[in-house]
Amino acid sequence: MEASRRIEQALATSLQRCERIECPPRLQAALRHAVFPAGARVRPRLCLAVAHSCGDDDPGLADASAAALELLHCASLVHDDLPCFDDAATRRGRASVHRAFGERTAVLVGDALIVMAFECIARAGARSPMRMAGVLSTLARAAGAPNGLAAGQAWECEPQAEVERYHRQKTGSLFAAATVAGAQCAGADPGRWRNFGECLGEAYQVADDIRDVADDPALLGKPVGQDSAHGCPSAVAALGLHGAVARFEELLDGALRAIPTCPGETQLRALVQFESIRLIPKGLAHRAA
Amino acid sequence: MEASRRIEQALATSLQRCERIECPPRLQAALRHAVFPAGARVRPRLCLAVAHSCGDDDPGLADASAAALELLHCASLVHDDLPCFDDAATRRGRASVHRAFGERTAVLVGDALIVMAFECIARAGARSPMRMAGVLSTLARAAGAPNGLAAGQAWECEPQAEVERYHRQKTGSLFAAATVAGAQCAGADPGRWRNFGECLGEAYQVADDIRDVADDPALLGKPVGQDSAHGCPSAVAALGLHGAVARFEELLDGALRAIPTCPGETQLRALVQFESIRLIPKGLAHRAA
Predict the structure, then answer these.
(1) Which of A188, B14, B36, B147 has the fewest beta carbons closer than 10 A?
(2) Phi, psi values for residue A39, rounded to 5°
(3) Which residues of B touch A34 (CB under 8 A)?
């Protein structure tokens, strides 16, 4: 089955488990609103691409890991959009969860999505509990403290933050988890895959910073200029627009070099090239340069 | 080792993993503030008591499960205290996390504690990955949607909620998880233990509702009268104070009857009796009756 169908199906299965009479109806609707319609699903696609390159001999665990990565990502977006953080009115081109369902429901949606991510992994672990334990640790480290997504986000509450560390934790951690978990699902050595995910994750965050100052809000589906408005550490603030574009290209090169020799190498290169164009359209890179 | 020392040590170990240079200092301090000093630790004590009754042959997994239950509970308290929910200024007799560290940090503390709970289980699963997978599923079901803690809390956002369902999800779920996971950690049949946890959990919530209208705020460590102030479903509102006390006693009897025949039966009965007096002091029960 094609990767994007596998991802949507795994996410739909997780969401359907909540659509029962005993679940508060607002929470049900808000959970669905947070996860669908699909965003770019870049983390789960990366996870499945690596699992494929490593043989993908436990596709149930790979699908669960892919879904779990996306659920953790969606949870972070919902909490990131809250009034106390970005107070974003829109996300993926429509109302953010707290604008559509209220702030209390949005807090609980984030909580429930984090739990759902781990439940997803637990359900898929029957075939290889040892692999499952590895994936679980990878995802937990990537999502929490001291140096996962929650920690990354928490640098926004500090008087000073080093921009590379902030990016590595807030964005890089889940990308690295995507490549590492992809390998773990297939019983491959995960250590060879971390650097690839880390480079890609940092590139992704630098691209986000660039688009935050230079992009058209209609293309982003969310307001632009958020980083400077909220005083978030930003590659553009640290390096200038030109420097940030150069850094983005350097990181992409690093990601390409970090792909281990494997049967799916060509496909992974194509995925990186595709993402690089999607993230920073050529015209934008030229305007910036 | 005595149960309370085991619990505090397991929690301290989890927290210490976050106390590193790469973790934002405010987040580190706020995580510690949310978990220490110790509250009653009733859920982890229940988990360890059941594990002990079932032979406790994997104490590392039992300690991790106990700690994970408490971390999930602390996470829910931090989010429950947020301005958009109860806006509680105090918790356990001192400033709530959002009053001491700000709302953004409080949101992230809750997220990080949920992740930490699952990480705790993952780390302790090496000896029996199959048991670990069972514990993990139990905790995830108890914490999330459709009928765990997050769902229970979400009934507060609905125009109508059935008080028993709200209690069962918001409080009962984690108590039932404590008894079920306690059995799972020791490789025992968890089905025999669910009802005990459920009765105890419902009793606990009814007691909380009673103390919310009848107790001294200095004993609670948090403001009283919160349920009616926030329109939360409450046993006292549904049954009256006298009816709620009768219901509390009925549930305690149910919990005592639900204890399966096992070596630790006497100890478990003593734990229930101890909790019943701690939850509703005799004088309060008399005043209410």
Answers:
(1) B36
(2) -85, -155
(3) none
B47 alpha carbon, distance to own chain's centre: 11
- Using the beta-carbon criterion (under 8 Å), do B129 and A129 form an inter-chain contact? yes
List domains and CATH numbers for chain B: 3-288 (1.10.600.10)
Tokens of A280: 């920073």
As a whole number of angstroms, the distance between CA B144 and CA B170 comes to 10
- The pTM assigned to this predicted structure is 0.94
Structure tokens at A137: 């640790």
* Pairing status of strand B94-95 against strand A90-91: unpaired
CA-CA-CA-CA torsion for A117, A122, A123, A128, nearest 10 degrees?
A: 130
Answer whether B119 sits within 8 Å of A137, measured CB to CB.
Answer: yes
The secondary element (H helix, E strand) that includes residue B95 is strand B94-95
ipTM (interface pTM): 0.94
Give the closest residue to B170 by CA, choosing from B253, B38, B72, B30. B72
Q: How far is CA B151 from CA A254, B13, B148, B245, in A?
A: 43, 29, 5, 26
Residues A49-61 have pLDDT tens digits of: 999 999 999 999 9
Closest CA to A98 of A116, A112, A113, A77: A77
